[in-house]
């Protein structure tokens, strides 16, 4: 893998690939969902292209090795190339990018052979100015990535692509979205299985209120000659009150039979039987609701490696529910 | 303690389930309610707890002299009503111990008491876990998550022990429970029973009533109590079945 490959600009084009064959029978595709739009998207679309191209060419950081732990600082470079070194455990922390203007950042992360990378990505925003983040992972042989992202508040879009380039590479994605008022959370995820025996897992959960909007366009791609892969995808949206919208478009592009794949997608409100159980033990409605919301969110953080930042992120998020 | 008169309730679609049910339970008494499947036993338990699927369309129910239906589900619990459910629900992500503690603190808050101290809670929890021969792992797990049928029932009794209710209605606590667990659960119930408390056991089986002796046995059929008697009635039902009463 050369640096040149890493920084090469890909086409900014989300036209879905045609589905030739889906192995999973129970895909609940919601056909009529258009590409979710951030307000004034068209204006940004052009600028994003240029901006990102510029970022990639002129504003790239030199290669940066994660030395155990790295907190990304975008203040000078909006596009950075980061390496998780081979045979090592490392942690990458991507802090919230709140700003009073439009933001567009990109990280290309080379996850070298046999490394274990934990990515902690809180994106907790106050301002409703669109913040775009592109994360591209290039996962090499036997490397493992645990990605935990929280999108709360603001208007934000995360574009996460994982290229599983080495055999037995693994990408585990956890995403929690919390949106209230008119906040928006847009997620584009592509799991590109480019090597045999690669595995990907996605657990995406969102809690929404009022007029908030969540959209999620997820693709798992396993080409014809790439066998023995495993890919799982779960998206759960919890609509709490008001008239929030949740649009999910999970797509599994699987072109061979030698795979294990599953997909689950639910949209609903708090389970009345669960609520009743808690109430019947004396909890008032408010704490019963909170308890269930926290349980729902807590599961995103379960069975992850311990890291104090992750722990405090979880605490902070659960407290705000 | 619990006084139910002519209780009627329906489902949202208007289907009437309880059709004039009366039952008086005094402090210190143990009552058993038996009856065919679908007769309304679980409905009685759930309607008293305030389950939203049912609308009370007539009659009354008083707990210690107060009209139960004036209160929300949580208030009924905090005033001392406990229902051990036939099918306790699983709530992953809520740690059992945290849940029990929230319940204990809800009751204390309701009674104007301070939150329970760590040490006191732990002691109380350990004592009751011991009594029910439950390992500590049960309270570290998600609420009823992956529990077997019998473990769920035991967990209901654990909650009852922690909440110390005035009236406990235990809905088929003996179903799906093996003999050893049944003995442990029964001993637990007997230990918790005092002259100031009342228990209603909903059951199909004499084997529970051998271990927890009822003062009264009632047969519920089609939303009404069709026969009441002493503990000998349960034995009679064991041999004769319900048919002679139901027809
Ligand atoms: N939530 C509900 N929705 C529809 N029907 C119900 C509901 N709850 C109870 N019923 C019906 O009410 C009747 C009594 O049920 P239940 O009280 O569970 O009986 P039991 O506990 O005596 O076996 C049954 O016919 C059952 O199908
Ligand atoms: Mg029942």
Architecture overview:
- The complex is a heterodimer of chains A (321) and B (247).
- By secondary structure, chain A is α/β, with parallel strands linked by helices.
- Chain A has five helices and 16 strands.
- Chain A has an eight-stranded parallel sheet. In chain A, strands 2-4-6-8-10-12-14-16 form an eight-stranded parallel sheet, with helices on one face.
- In chain A, helix 3 crosses helix 4.
- Chain A is globular, with a radius of gyration of 19 Å.
- With 247 residues, chain B is an alpha/beta fold.
- Chain B has one domain: P-loop containing nucleotide triphosphate hydrolases (Rossmann fold).
- Helices cover 39% and strands 28% of the residues of chain B.
- Chain B has ten helices and twelve strands.
- In chain B, the strands form three sheets. Chain B has a six-stranded mixed sheet with strand order 6-9-10-3-11-12, with helices on both faces. In chain B, strands 2-1-4-5 form a four-stranded antiparallel sheet. Chain B has a two-stranded antiparallel sheet with strand order 7-8.
- In chain B, strand 1 and strand 2 form a beta hairpin.
- In chain B, helix 6 packs parallel to helix 7.
- Chain B is globular, with a radius of gyration of 18 Å.
- Chain B starts with a strand and ends with a helix.
- The model of chain B has no long low-confidence stretch (mean pLDDT 94).
- Chains A and B meet through helix 3 and helix 4 of A and helix 2, strand 7 and helix 3 of B.
- Bound molecules: adenosine-5'-diphosphate and magnesium ion (MG).
- Adenosine-5'-diphosphate (ADP) binds next to helix 1 of chain B.
